[in-house]
Amino acid sequence: MEDIEALVEILKKYNEAYRKGKPLVSDLEYDRLLEKLRELSPYHPFLLSVEPEKFDAKKEVRHPVPMLSTEKTYTKDGLEKFIARVNKAANEIGIADISFSVTPKLDGLAGRDDGTMLATRGNGETGYDISNSFNKGIIPAGGRGLGLGELVIVTSYFEEHLSDEFEHPRNMVVGIITSDTLNEFAKKALQDNMVHFVPYSVLPKWTGSAGELLENIEQITKDLTAKTDYPIDGMVAEVANEDVKNHMGATAHHYRWQIAIKTKGETAITTVEGIKWQVGRTGNITPVLKIRPVYLSGATIRNVTAHHAGLIQKKHIGVGAEIEVIRSGEVIPKLEKVIMESDEIIIPEKCPSCGTELEWNNDFLKCNNSSCKAQIEQSISHWFKTLGNADWFGIKTIQKLVKNGYDRLEKIYAMSENDFKSIGFGPGQSKNLAEAINISKNKPVEDWRFLAAFGISDLGKGDSRKLLSHMKIEELIDAKAEDIKKIPNFGPITSSSVEEGIKKIKDRIYHMLSIGFNLERTPLAKEQIDIDSAIAGKHVVFTGKMDYGSREEMQEEARRLGAVVQTSISSKTDYLICGEKVGSSKIEKAKKMGVIIISEEKYNKLINKM
């Protein structure tokens, strides 16, 4: 059988070279190797995530506020559900008149410009400083310091001059960012002022009511697309009312007051040739459909997820079933619908990994053997992927470790270079693995990410962050359900589940803490909010270019001091804090609403910074 990990290393090498603007192979050859990996290992981690945005020569920077992703919908039904959630939230705070805005969703390299630094999105928590992009000739559309946006190339220019040389506009933009030596095409595009950093705030916008949005979304999309000469892959709709936004808040992944409306991808009809059952870290058994190969969105598709055993049973999916599959930009294609059912439905009775009798848990088949090898492998994989600070631990490496008795994190983190060699890893890989373990312990990592990496039921990244803003991880280990229930958004069922989950691996958490991870502690709520602060409970808006820090840094500090930070003036605004170059219309609006207008200098005196 092909050496999958060797193939992955080749792909990583080619991808890194491409990201640096120095491709070693053609796009066609790279894609051929990628498809080869997909055929050999369709669920390899390299295929299940966006190819790494890692700029080795760039300084890593932490975002003052996480750059969240966007919830997506491909259907009108999804848009209706979003609007219903907004209406419910608005009713909760007594607001009846709600309006929405729609802007194009750019398809480029996301970044944040605070007027001093331009940083990439990175992993959302930290990105890379690419401020020198402006020195290369990238144009800041609308000026500097306008916040979040994307690096893109003008579409009409790309199609006329570059479409024969580059597969996708984004590829060229990334090449400009990563390469010190630009090719002739990039130099020409920059000289022609055709590569821009476009803040979302300068994009063409539609505004209207919920009814108008639902009724006219197709025409809105058409009109905004016509006005946008940049690559786009949908529209972004959001609530215009700031109070509703503040009330709805965000998850760890996206803002609840915003949604991306995307067009469905390509579909194809094919036949099921077999079903492979895979075991997840929680014991859920997931069916993967082996299908007659079809070509979709530039890739040959041979495998499709079928979500859970209940779907197989209810939709009569088996060998011979005719199905429609869809690929809408995601790496993994999905089952859209069953066209013709199968006469042969086979649901496994035993775990494909350990042979334990399976049990039904709603629509899922579950293996309840905590010693199941596949579950152990997936749990270890979850740890390294969530922690995100140790390379080299792909699933094949983890499977080899487990096979040789290294089936617990405690054992793996005690391994030396010689230990890796002793079970068959080569000298180079053994050195890399031992070094990765050392880096994992010593490189700073957020305590909530450390907690979430244990894979405790009902305790993902967002909830881990919430918990650790109310108690230290050492206190959480011994916390009871009634303690957890006192924290906002933790009900009795979730609180009991968290207590039970922590109790099961209590010794493991203590051990991992004891070996000296370099944890960045989440500030406790009582530390985050100074109730004696002059702006505690006040609604504040920052505007203009600030001298004492970026606008985002000042917003984050104000939140720590207990203020409610708004992005635009409303009837609830108490203070408008003004830097340089503030528009007269904003000042007039503040005056009309009786908002207190103060300079940045006076604001700093107010919060006792001067």
Features of the shown structure:
D-amino Acid Aminotransferase, Chain A, domain 1, 6 domains, 610 residues, 25 strands, single chain, 5-stranded mixed beta sheet, OB fold (Dihydrolipoamide Acetyltransferase, E2P), alpha+beta
Description:
The protein is of the alpha+beta class and 610 residues long. The protein folds into 6 domains: 1-43; 60-261, 2-Layer Sandwich (D-amino Acid Aminotransferase, Chain A, domain 1), CATH 3.30.470; 270-325 and 342-369, Nucleic acid-binding proteins (OB fold (Dihydrolipoamide Acetyltransferase, E2P)); 373-442, Orthogonal Bundle (DNA polymerase, domain 1); 445-526, 5' to 3' exonuclease, C-terminal subdomain (DNA polymerase, domain 1), CATH 1.10.150.20; 529-606, Rossmann fold. The chain is 38% helix and 20% strand. It has 25 helices and 25 strands. The strands form 6 sheets. Strands 13, 14, 15, 16, 17, 18 and 19 form a 7-stranded antiparallel beta sheet that branches. A 5-stranded mixed beta sheet has the order 2-12-11-3-10. Strand 4 (109-113) and strand 5 form a beta hairpin. Helix 11 (373-387) packs across helix 12. The protein is globular. The N and C termini lie far apart (68 Å).
- Kindly report how far apart the N and C termini lie: 68 Å
CATH superfamily of the largest domain, by name, is DNA ligase/mRNA capping enzyme
Low-confidence segments, ≥5 residues, pLDDT <50? 19-23
- What CATH architecture of the largest domain do you see? 2-Layer Sandwich
- Rg for CA atoms: 26 Å
* Largest β-sheet summary: 7 strands, antiparallel
* Beta-strand percentage range: 15-25%
Share of residues in helices:
25-40%
Structural class determined from secondary elements = alpha+beta
What is the CATH fold-level name of the largest domain? Answer: D-amino Acid Aminotransferase, Chain A, domain 1
β-strand number: 25
Global outline: globular
Integer tally of domains: 6
CATH class value of the largest domain:
Alpha Beta
Kindly report the average pLDDT value: 85
Number of helices: 25
